[in-house]
Amino acid sequence: MHRSRYKAVIPAAGLGTRFLPATKAMPKEMLPVVDKPAIQYVVEEAAHAGIEDILVIIGRNKNAVANHFDSVPELEVKLKDKGDEERLRRVVKSSDLADIHFVRQGEPKGLGHAVLRARAHVGSSPFAVLLGDDLIDDRDPLLTAMLDEHERTGGAVVALLEVDPDHIHLYGAAAVEDTDREGIVRVTGLVEKPKAEEAPSNLAIIGRYVLTPEVFDILERTGPGKGGEIQLTDALQELATDPDGPGVSGVIFRGRRYDTGDRVDYIKAIVQLATDREDLGPELRPWLKEFAANI
């Protein structure tokens, strides 16, 4: 399905300090997850949902991200001459996924500020925001469900995940009301990284949003919040409590998600995705069983 009225925004300006020294010269978004950089999974997710116009918000020393989605004629010719059609197909795919644009964030002032930098490109279009730390398995089309919900309500939509209450302080947390639709809730409030005892629920906001351009006016006047940064959660809180607006809906996600923002979870993501692949799994799974039995 083509979603030509939508655009996608991928904030990719973070420093990746948890992965130093690997990210000293390489953007964290370019760290490989099996044999593709993490950000390619995110671009593919947007493209598979039918979004063809994608804006990546980059920071200093992020040129490798832009280079990855460019065509490389000399490499393509060499692979073609060698008859390596499979690798040629994979190389060409990364530059044919969508119409990809780039803008610099400038001073990093938080996720809300990064989203605000997309204003000129987004214009009057509804848009999706996809964070690169959360990889969503393409067998569990979360973004498609969120776009469908936006079509129904016209309001903002966030992705929610039930987490251990002891971990809710790592996320934005949502207060919700049930609806008559399975897996869909109405969000009545949001709190950024609350203490466990202060969290309104154990429903964490994960890195997928569908927003309307009205959020930009709110972000313009939103001051620094948690961590001294401009928080997208604070703007969503205003949308959720606006009695005259369409509100904020939540899609509760129960599919496969891979967190690549943490070193241990990043390794788990590689193992999980590799063992599921037809070309790698048959050899990897027996080795993993033998390895696990000997530790």
TrEMBL record:
It catalyses: alpha-D-glucose 1-phosphate + UTP + H(+) = UDP-alpha-D-glucose + diphosphate. Belongs to the UDPGP type 2 family. The keyword Nucleotidyltransferase applies. It is an enzyme of class 2 (transferase). Its EC number is 2.7.7.9. GO terms for molecular function: nucleotidyltransferase activity. CDD domains: UGPase_prokaryotic. This is UTP--glucose-1-phosphate uridylyltransferase. The keyword Nucleotidyltransferase applies. Residues 7-274 form the Nucleotidyl transferase domain. Keywords: Nucleotidyltransferase, Transferase. Gene3D superfamilies: Spore Coat Polysaccharide Biosynthesis Protein SpsA, Chain A. It holds the Pfam family NTP_transferase. It comes from the Bacteria.
